[in-house]
Amino acid sequence: MGTYRNPILPGCHPDPSICRVGDAYYLVTSTFEYLPGLPIHRSTNLVDWQLIGHAIHRPEQLEGDCGLDFAPIPSSKGLYAPTIRHHAGRFYVVCTHVAGAGHPLARSGHFVVTADDPAGPWSEPVWFDGMPGIDPSLTFDGDRLWLCATAPAAGDAWTGANAVWLAELDPETFAPLGERTAIWTGALDGAGWAEAPHILPHPDGGWLLVAAEGGTDRDHSVCVAYADQITGPYRGDPGNPRLTHRHLGARAPIANVGHADLVEAPDGRTWAVALATRTDAGTDALTARQTVLVPVEWQAGRPVFAPGSGRVEAVVEAEGVADQQPWPDLVRDDFDAPALDLAWNGVRRLPSAFADAGARPGFVRLTATSDEPSQVGATSFLARRLPDSRVDVRTVVELSAGEGALRAGLLLRTSELGFVELSVDRAGRVRAVLEDSGRTIELGSTTLPAGAPVALAMRVEGFCVELIAAGFVVATADVRGVLTTGRTSWFVGTWVGPFAVGEGVADVDVVELRTRA
After folding, report:
1. Which one of 15, 168, 388, 421 is the catalytic residue?
2. Contact, 7 vs 292, CB < 8 A?
3. Residue 195 falls in the annotated catalytic set
4. Which of 147, 160, 369, 412 is the most interior residue, by most CB within 10 Å?
């Protein structure tokens, strides 16, 4: 009997998928516009996880006719809902790249990357042309390979009417073998967005379809269906949805539960990873959609999620897991290593494109660009997931000498439409700014001696953010409804870290994230 807490990963990790190889589990989650993309975590006990790499991590995967073009990708587009599977010694991650409306130059669609080692390197993308929709998943049935995903259903039954479809692929070339077939339109008439499908072997024989329904907000849910043959017909469980918090209302401390994948442990127990969001007085926390772990029991051939309660609990005591180790309350990077830590991300660019850990010992050097954080561009933003709702963030930045405009500092970002900036320029002017859906709000400013290193900090307390320069509180920002998710197509939580805009470079001495109880 062990005790663990949900979520099982700190920060925004939506749309989890899981597989097991021997005694090790591998987990992948969505990253949307952030690179490297699709983090791969490893665990031997389901509750303690280590980041070992990313499925999208090399410039070659982003270039050429088959590359993933991120340049025009706005926030909450990009890499949607991956699935990780293992077969015959090889790992597979299948995902959807979504360019978004108005961005015809970026390629959209499903693709697969493969690797012999889940830590990488991963292959260049192979695209599934002519396959619509989102949320792809692979199923291996002996020597046969199947791809399923979800797309708008034929006709106009109701808003958000989706169909899960299935197609057989050549296991070597991934070319489709025959036509794709619709196999499921959801458990309930009128319930929108049947999505996140996974087809898994049923422990009693036949097949189990696990899918989400209701959209990835308060009506989110997990539904299941059964079939004797992988091609169907699929029969919905009469008790659907099998897991949801929709009935708990808007103020439930854990909400938006859905998008599940199942895995069998070596002891025969079944577990589900799923998506859920912590809330504060009915508003999504800044960490947004996260990964939770739920025990599953089989009763009369039906999966029972969280038996005995039917809910995702913040603290779970269960057989089959060890006591979870506490997360460190301090994450500090002094940039003494020759390469950046795996947890660092860039927006639409790999960190290696603008962040150099070897240019100056004990620093990371950010090469600035002219693109503002409010633009869909190539801002030099070295970002980490905000790990919790109560975090102190600290950095020290030093700007290069020069004549052109240059500023650098800390960015607390959910989108190019929602962020908080605390920065200093070459003249020593410190400014605090809130970006709210196209409105740039000056929160406060001060002036410090020009040319000297500047200590900048943000104190995040729920939705209140204190902005501090050289120990002086420059401003306070209320970010409820500005950085928070829950709006249409706002799928990504909050990242934080140093950034630089203008002409020249900024050297960052340290970044520290301290989580408060």
Report:
1. 15
2. yes
3. yes
4. 412
